[in-house]
Amino acid sequence: MMNSNLNETKEKQHPVFVIGHKNPDTDSICAAITYANLKNKLYGDRYIACRLGRLNEETQFVLSYFDVDEPPYIKDVRARLRDIDIRMLDAAKKGDSIKSAGSRMHEANVTLLCVTEDDHVDGIITMSDIVKTFMEIRDPMFLSNSEATAGIVAQALDGILAVGAPEDRIAGGKLIPVTDVNVSKIEAGKGDVLLLGKCDDIPDYIFESGVSCLIITGTPEINETIKSKAEAHGIRLIFTKHDFFVASNLITMSTPVGHVMNHDMPMAFHQDDFLLDVRESVATARYKYFPVLDRFNRYIGMVSHRNLLGAAKKQLILVDHNEKGQSVNGLDEAEILEIIDHHRLGAVESSGPIFFRNQPLGSTCTIIYQMYKESGIEIDKTMAGLMVSAILSDTLILRSPTCTPVDRAAAEELSKIAGIECEEFGKEMFRAGAKLKEKTPDEIIHLDYKVFTVDEQTIGIGQVNSMSSDELDMIKDMVLPELEATRDHDRLDMLFLMLTNITERSSNVLFAGPKALQTLKSAFGQDARDDVVTLPGVVSRKKQFLLTLVETLQT
């Protein structure tokens, strides 16, 4: 069995995106789908065929005919925040105790939690904030000053709120710790909170003193007698299983998070922010964790500085192209694993050795057909239909000079598997793709359009194939007035549009740019007539038109 990928390892389980060129044609799309299918059969389901633009009518016809879904659209392969490990760490609430927040940090092994209100980040609380609060508590009025509630106090003590509502404020009094209520008279007043050692009963004068809350330690179960008296006097009552000493320490951690949280927050980022931009932003940040938000600015989770630095690049396989200008945005920040192509060598660079298969054939799908055969993978009807469609499209139903005996043999075998007849299906496919009257001039120019760099000159070449001279004349009249504006918008030195008549095997070339006409004259020896250069026998952009232009410009 063939192993075509030098980087293939079982350890890597990242998705691999198989992509054709921008302004995709039928070969580009079908190559991505059929090669992803081959790789998935060989190495597991981690290869995803994608597209870099809207499908033309011809390709839509092919996918519909063979009942294949349109590949997902991908615009940019720069790594985004959503591509790395976002820790779905629950945020703290203002009403949580600092003990609860601290316990959550300890369990999650982090030193920071976001504090949210209505799912939006309102601040943060750090372990340092909690320690500082714990160390600075000296004032017996701290419960009142921190606006603690009965529910927060019970939460901090792991206790049971037997009387009172969780939202009841502990306000207006001081905390009085009492180890034994029977030893001496307690000087308690209105609003005070009594932290009591384990007791079976409490003197009546305490209930009558106006205290706001009683906390009974060392008692895991509710004392019904004390509960009844507390209810009668409107006093909150909390029972905790912890002994007096432990409870004395824990109650200092009943301060609400909202009282100590920090509004000097670390930078927050959105899921779709580019990773490179985020890394630059946090390079000098003093925090180690950063909030991640969705597009509605709602809190999702946290990402660590370490994860930001160690994120892997997106992995790609390029099919039907090998030039950076024709490929996906952000290519420099991705890892290219393979290239499968049938065009001239371009300027794509890789960080290391890759599998590169480039053959002078009429279609990328002819190469992929060979790879199926070499791998011993059976070609089903659907994959055969896509591959033969791509071959017929790129070779103009086997009429193009780029068509080789290998392409013809592949088309013959694949058409049998797919259950179609090449000539008949090819004409039907081209007719489906010839619905050009409804398109704008800009859409027509960019329908099958590629940009090339030759000796520091940027050249755009579009091609429209049709079996109707009348249709091509109509396109010429539509597009010609807009060609110069398109060249300027695309920042090109020269722009050419080939209007190729499949039946007559010739092309009328529209052009824009100061040196465009002279280049055509030098390359093909033909002058313009009515702003059009007619090239009999020229139907292939790759093998005839571009090749001749390159040779002319480089001499």
Cross-sheet strand order for the largest sheet:
2-1-14-15-16
| CATH superfamily descriptor of the largest domain | inorganic pyrophosphatase (n-terminal core)
Described by the principal axes of the CA atoms, the overall outline is elongated
Number of strands: 21
Compute the number of structural domains: 3
Radius of gyration: 37 Å
> Which second-level CATH architecture of the largest domain applies?
Alpha-Beta Complex
CATH topology descriptor of the largest domain: inorganic pyrophosphatase (n-terminal core)
Task: Characterize the structure shown.
With 555 residues, this protein is α/β, with parallel strands linked by helices. It has three domains: 183 residues, Alpha-Beta Complex (inorganic pyrophosphatase (n-terminal core)); 169 residues, HprK N-terminal domain-like (Udp-n-acetylmuramoylalanyl-d-glutamate--2,6- Diaminopimelate Ligase, Chain: A, domain 1, 3-Layer(aba) Sandwich), CATH 3.40.1390.20; 113 residues, Diaminopimelate Epimerase, Chain A, domain 1 (Roll). It is 35% helix and 20% strand. The protein contains 21 helices and 21 strands. The strands form five sheets. Strands 2-1-14-15-16 form a five-stranded parallel sheet. It has a five-stranded mixed sheet with strand order 6-10-9-8-7. Helix 11 links the parallel strand 11 and strand 12. The longest helix has 18 residues.
